[in-house]
Structure formats: structure tokens, C-alpha cells
Design a protein that fits this description.
The protein is mainly β. About 10% of the residues lie in helices and about 50% in strands. The longest helix is centred in the middle third of the chain and has 7 residues.
Length: about 70
């Protein structure tokens, strides 16, 4: 599933591996501290790309907003 994640410092655009028909809310609630984001693009809040990575772990404690991506 494509997602957009806002933290206090960054906007992260990438993919998470969910089960078929799994709701995003349930996916986040079941994680124990970190979610794996693949094909990640990391932007600052001004929209400038900071870096890309094939894989990053994002701390669920720092997620302010998460939504399905376009």
C-alpha cells in the first residue's frame, strides 16, 4: 500500500506491506514500535526531497499523520 507519513520533521512517501483488505489503522495499531517503509522518499515540510532509500524504519511514536498515498 502506498502511504504518506508526516512526522514533526519529515514527510515520508513510500510503500508498506499490508495484508489483503487490511485497514491502515489496524496495520499501525498492531506494530510494536516501527513500521517498514520501502521505496521511501523523504521530504522536508517545504517539500524538498532530502533523500531516497529502498528501505527505512519509521518509529510509530513519531508519526503525526499517516494516510494512503495517491
Amino acid at each position: 500500500m502506498q502511504v504518506r507519513i508526516w512526522t514533526d520533521s519529515f514527510i515520508i512517501i513510500g510503500e508498506i506491506d499490508t495484508l489483503k483488505d487490511e485497514r491502515l489503522t489496524d496495520y499501525i495499531r498492531e506494530r510494536k514500535g516501527f513500521i517498514a517503509v520501502t521505496q521511501a522518499r523523504v521530504l522536508n515540510h517545504g517539500g524538498e526531497e532530502q533523500f531516497r532509500a529502498p528501505f527505512i524504519n519509521v518509529s510509530t511514536r513519531h508519526i503525526e499523520i499517516i494516510m494512503p498515498g495517491e
